[in-house]
Amino acid sequence: MRYYLIAGEASGDLHASNLMKALKQEDPQAQFRFYGGDKMAAVGGTLVKHYRELAYMGFVPVLLHLPTILRNMKQCKADIATWKPDVVILIDYPGFNLDIAKYVHSHNICKVFYYISPKIWAWKEYRIKNIRRDVDALFSILPFEVKWFEERDYKVHYVGNPCVDAVEEWRQHSQQEGMSKGEKGGERQIAILAGSRKQEIKDNLRMMLEAASTFKAYKLVIACAPSIDPSYYQKYIPTGIEVELRFGQTYQVLSESVAALVTSGTATLETAILEVPQVVCYYIPMGKFITWLRSKILKVKYISLVNLVADKEIVQELVADRMTKENIIQYLRDILPEGKGRQRMMQDYQEMNQRLGGSGASKRAAQAMVKALKNS
Length: 376
Description:
- It is built from 17 helices and 13 strands.
- With 376 residues, the protein is an alpha/beta fold.
- The model is unreliable at 180-185 (pLDDT under 50).
């Protein structure tokens, strides 16, 4: 069968690539065409457009690049219509993907599956109408989503979380390569994960480094997004702060670190699965206004996936006006070795990981997708 996949950022590229591997096991004749990244390309098929050409974030960047975004949408729709796949598989990235779903459904081109649901339970709940109308099946990776969607008359398939798969695959590989935790260099280290988009790096990296650098006994390492040029990171590294940049080695960097500063997103969950204590940092301009607005708009208590899955505060969320250098220092100190909150966080991680379930999400999703396509 012919599978057309759309992933709009680095984490989507990772999880889509693992799904593609699983689909090939279930369907040896599988053909792939996709908007995605290097990891998907490594599996095989045709990369139509790289996600680095798609990943615009924030009102102003989206507005400035609107012609490009609209052109990409038009090209994607035309490409799908020409290639005529058996299914379009959408991976997160709702602003783009829900519009594609609407087009594919309205033109009766093929089935539409959604893997890694848009986070409409946090905000933009009205999008459930679009999903009911345009998405034939949704494959959830967060356990609390099942009840949320069912309460709104839409049945979803919970397949487990692919981050568990990705970490497990990395662990097996690292064992084969002899790169166990702490073996490389042996230095005490703090990991800095400032996001996969330029706007996130611009807003967060400088303050994260300024705070972490006050702990002189620790080496600082930035786990860099593979799609971002090294020169862009250099722009936001304060003068006099020594830091190592490492690309495409996020799990290895985390495994060697005693703690991490992490922007909100999939990375917070991956850090928790790897059992590295963390502080979530997400600066937003006009912080006090955003904090007030968040209380009026967001439908959830937390923004980090770690806390959402656990349904309690495991990690500190320094968002908007709460993200200050002083707060980062305070909560980072609390989770470093000998910190009073470190052991409690490690215990809470175990509970969260139990809720996520074991590995095999990609395989379960692929089996369900192939079965549904054959039955149709």
